[in-house]
Amino acid sequence: MYPEADIPVCQLSVSSNKGATYHYNMGKALAPLKDEGVLIIGSGSATHNLRAIGPRGTPPPPWATAFMSWLKTSLLDGRYEEVNEYEEKAPYAKMAHPEPDHFFPLHVAMGAAGENAKAKVVHDTWDGCSISYASFSFTTAN
């Protein structure tokens, strides 16, 4: 992405014992950095259940596709509060994310983008049967 490796990088850890809204608010606190040219990236997995990994090339199970369908629709429709309440709102939330640490980076990026940001799917693949590597970008609303 930056072949000269001439940009500063700062890693931010998520707090698994805090909720999705906490991480969304963390993103909101980081949002002003965008005005200084800072790129905010959240890196995780859209589904991440290592106990449910299967052979490569195997179609994703119904619980995984149901969760991903809900997530995509929620993000693309701008229903970020629902994504913050994914444990109650999403189908198979606990199956898709037995632990939240691979999902919370999305909430940080979502918060940094802002309430009126527009989400877009930029990548959508599966691996190991149940691991979704769907990637989203957020465009700040004018």
Structure description:
- With 142 residues, this protein is of the alpha+beta class.
- It contains 6 helices and 4 strands; from the N terminus they run ααααααββββ.
- The chain has helices at residues 20-30, 62-76, 80-84, 86-89, 93-96, 104-113; strands spanning 118-123, 126-127, 131-132, 135-139.
- Strands 1-4 form a two-stranded antiparallel ribbon.
- The protein starts with 19 loop residues before the first helix and ends with a strand.
- The mean pLDDT is 93.
- This is 4,5-DOPA dioxygenase extradiol-like protein.
- GO terms for molecular function: ferrous iron binding; oxidoreductase activity, acting on single donors with incorporation of molecular oxygen, incorporation of two atoms of oxygen; zinc ion binding.
